[in-house]
Amino acid sequence: MSWTVVRYDFTEKVECRLGLKKHYITSGKGFVIRNENGEEAFCGPVCASNPLYVTNPNEKVPDITMGCSIFNESGQIVVSEVVRGSANQKNDEEINEKNAAIAYLTLRCNKLAHIKGIKYNALNAIYGEYLKDNDLSESDVDFVSYVMNNDDFQKYTYKNLLGIYACDYWINYFIECNDNIKYVERVRATLHKNLFLEKEQITKLNNWFRYSDGKEIMKLKENLFSHIK
Predict the structure, then answer these.
(1) Those residues with Cβ within 8 angstroms of residue 100's Cβ, 6 or more apart along the chain or in another chain
(2) 85-141: per-residue pLDDT in tens?
(3) Residue 15 three-state SS
(4) Residue 134 to residues 157, 192, 226: CA-CA distances in angstroms?
(5) What is the phi/psi pair of residue 15, to 5°?
(6) Residue 92, CA distances (Å) to 7, 60, 61, 72, 202 in order
(7) pTM over the 0.90 mark
């Protein structure tokens, strides 16, 4: 069965699907792979770059994790980078534009679809075609790019959805790992209602995250929503 790397995403501790020996992804981020049956799993950066395991070892893929850093055991921030993809790819600008469009569709039509007001039928149709073909047409990329960069609707821009996803993912994970966290639950409700958080709320969230019941949680960038006017 062949696997294709489709994006870079958040994850809790999870077993890498590929490789000869059993091993785990513990960094909070990993590469999502998809097979011809549509099944998705996670793998680490070494396996994601190995042509024996994936069909696209040197291709750049969408990254929907921008907006977070990692705490280590002592509470310090760990800076991590995605090491994958050839720096000599042709049409780099076109590749980046398409990957951004795919990332935006993944956020709006999948990862954040549970939030009221996020869904958009025209995008859902394009996302369905992407899942079927694992690609986007040039006209679809143009349309998605227009929607995701439309500053007339700042809360639905690509930049804002990346911030919402980072907050929503790690808030949900924190709540799953800890009991009686009413403040964090209220912040999540505010995020879903307003589609952004104030800097002070993010600062308080990060303080909560530092003391999560032995679970590693990422640090949210405090200026995630500074673009909202």
Answers:
(1) 62, 145, 148, 158
(2) 444 444 566 678 899 999 999 999 999 999 999 989 999 999 999 999 889 999 999
(3) strand
(4) 23, 29, 33
(5) -75, 135
(6) 17, 9, 12, 34, 34
(7) no
